[in-house]
Amino acid sequence: MQHKVPAGLSHKEAEIYRHLDPEKLPKHIAIIMDGNGRWARRRHLPRVAGHRAGVAAVRSTVETAARIGIHALTLYAFSEENWKKRPRSEVDFLMRLLGRYLRAELPTLNANNIRLEYIGRQHELPQDVQERMQWAREATGRNTGMVLTLALNYSARSELVDAFRSMLLTASKNGGIEHLRIDEDTVCNHLYTRYLPDPDLVVRTSGEMRLSNFLLWQLAYAEIYVTPTLWPDFRGMHLLEALAEYQKRERRYGGLNGDGHAHEQPVVAHK
Known about the structure:
Blueprint: H1 11-17, E1 28-32, H2 36-42, H3 47-67, E2 72-79, H4 80-85, H5 88-111, E3 115-119, H6 127-139, E4 147-154, H7 156-172, H8 184-188, E5 201-204, E6 223-226, H9 236-246
Parallel strand pairs: 1-2, 1-5, 2-4, 3-4, 5-6
Helix pairs in contact: 1-9, 2-3, 3-5, 3-9, 5-6
C-alpha cells in the first residue's frame, strides 16, 4: 500500500517522498551549509549576497523536514572559525541576518510546530543577538514537533573542551574529582547536544569532502551524503534526495552482515 504524502510538499517533493519508507527516516539530520560565497562569486555578487540567498534554502529545508516528520534537524550556521577569521564586516552582516531571520521566521516555526534551540558558545555573541535568540527560543518553547538546532559560534573541539570542564566542575561540587567517572555516557551528558540523539545522517552541500569541525563526537556512526549543490540552491527536494540515498545504505555500526562479512558503506553520493 502506498503511504500518504504529507501536506505541503511540492509536486517534485511528493514524487520523491512516495519512494521513501516513512518508517526508515533518520531521526536526526545534521547539515553543513556550505557554498554561499561561491554562489555569490559565480554571479559576480558580494559574499553577503550568498548569505542572504541562503535564508530561502533554510526555510525550504526546515519546512520540508518538519512536514515529513523528522524529529531533529541541526544546521551548521556559523562556526567559531568564522567568528575569528572572517572580515568584521561579514561577521556583522551575519549577526544582523540572524536577527532578521529569527524575527521573520518565527511565525513559520510556530505554524510547523518547530522548537528552536542553539549549540555553540552563545555567550561570546553580541548581547543584542543573544537576547533575540533567547526571545525566539522562548517563543517556540511549547512546540512539540521537530527540534531545529542552530549551531552558532560552534566548534566541535571547543564543545569537547567545554564538556570536560563541565565534568570537572560537576565532580568538584559532588565529592571531588577523585569520584569522577568518565565514560561515553558521562561525556554525552555534558555535550551541547545532550538533549538530542546522535545524527543518523549528515549532509554537506557544495561538494566539499570534510566535516569542518562539526559534531565530531556525535557523527561517529552517521551516514555522510555530499552534494555539489551550493547551499543557496538547496531546497526540500534536495533533502528528500539525500534521504532516498540514505535509505539505500545498510547501517552496520562496525558489525557484520548475515554472511559474516563486514561491508564498507559508500560515504558520498553526487547528485
